[in-house]
Amino acid sequence: MFQLNFNFELKSLLRNAWIQTLCILLPALCLFAAYNGARKVAERQEGTVRTQMQADSTFTVMLGVLDSVEKGLKTDLPPWQSPQTPSVIGNRYPRVAVMDVQPLALLATGQSDLYAHTVRPQLYGEATMLNFTELASPVQLLFGSFDLSFVFVYLLPLIIIAFSYNILSVEKEQGSLRLLLSQPVSVVQWLFQKAIIRFLLLGTIGVASLWLALGLAGVPVGAQAIKIGSVTMLLLAYMLCWFFIAALVNLAGRSSGQNAVVLLAVWVVLVLLLPAVVNQVANNLYPVPSRALLINELRITNVDAEKQADTILASYYRDHPELMPEADKAETYLFYKKYLASQDLIRARMAPLLVQYEARLKEQQAFTDRLRLASPALLLSDGLNELAGVSSRHYQSYREQIVAFANEWRAAFLPKIFKGEPMRRADIDALPQFVYNAATVPSHYTANLTLLLAYAVALALAALLFFRSIALERIFS
Fold this sequence. Notes:
two-stranded antiparallel sheet, 2 strands, mainly alpha, elongated
């Protein structure tokens, strides 16, 4: 039965030029989306390389000057710019904390157009964890990016709807349904077979288009076969959901035009409306404090700390006697001693606001993570963003790693500054290096794939139950 159904469906689709159209349309969309994604990734890498090269260039020059100073040679630099001064190294030559591009970054833009990918923590300035986002183009944020994620999440369901909105209704309108059911054939079994056959055909074209686009875009398909296989599984599960939605709508016995309208309404709700509602509800339930107010409060706290700098420094020495300098070095690097000593007080005062800010961000993320199961589109989008390394969880982890590295960078200079000691070449070589660790990001891939498959199973069961609850006369009416 399945073989006969498959042969009939294939001949029908070839006669109507559906297969030929999809073989051109879907690869073209994927190739164009992959090109756009690769271009954005290239721009991101170029910016990162440019920043790193500039930092390396100035750092190399600084090392040359430091070697000259240690050899007793004269330099043209004023004393306050001498690389032997710890605060000069800490502020003028910081390491570049780079968020590395993941191999499948061209899959999705995700949050990459909202956040910075290179940060240079310094000794001076406490807003590292606040000055993390970049100004983004309002037009870009409004329309999004035409990447592979956009093709699969938004456009692919429309193709499936056009491919399957009339799999049952067209038989009724042509008068062949009664003849078909005069045979010993179950309506729901026949309908599911048609849906599965079209799923297999479109799935083959979609997967081939995906792999072709990634290969032509420069992704090492062989080396990334496991990750690309993960993308393929998500994509097929998402497609299966939409084919079962189409089968369920067809069982209602409406005309082809009505089926198309209903399926488009379902697409609007699942792909457009629900994600927007989830985002809006998250913002309303867990409003994030204003960054402008946080930065303003930080500046006020800094001003108050500067007025109490002498008292704070004396108290700091009582708490950290191991950093007490010798008498002849008490005035060395005095400004930075006062500044760094005041940071404990500033952190204590800012901690409640920063904790609230971070807590609200995490609550928003946790809320959206829980409600992503409300729509297959959210599940697929989250899965693709995760595999591309551009999800909100990746940038949250990157920010936490930056804050930890900034504290480590500052701690490397504290003993030198408070004891009034100069920097040596050996000290430069021992400075901490930043290495982005994407493995710390929690993975939701298994949950997303499982939920998509659960959606497909639930829709198939719903179609079976719906078919049992209606009379065949309703299908023919």
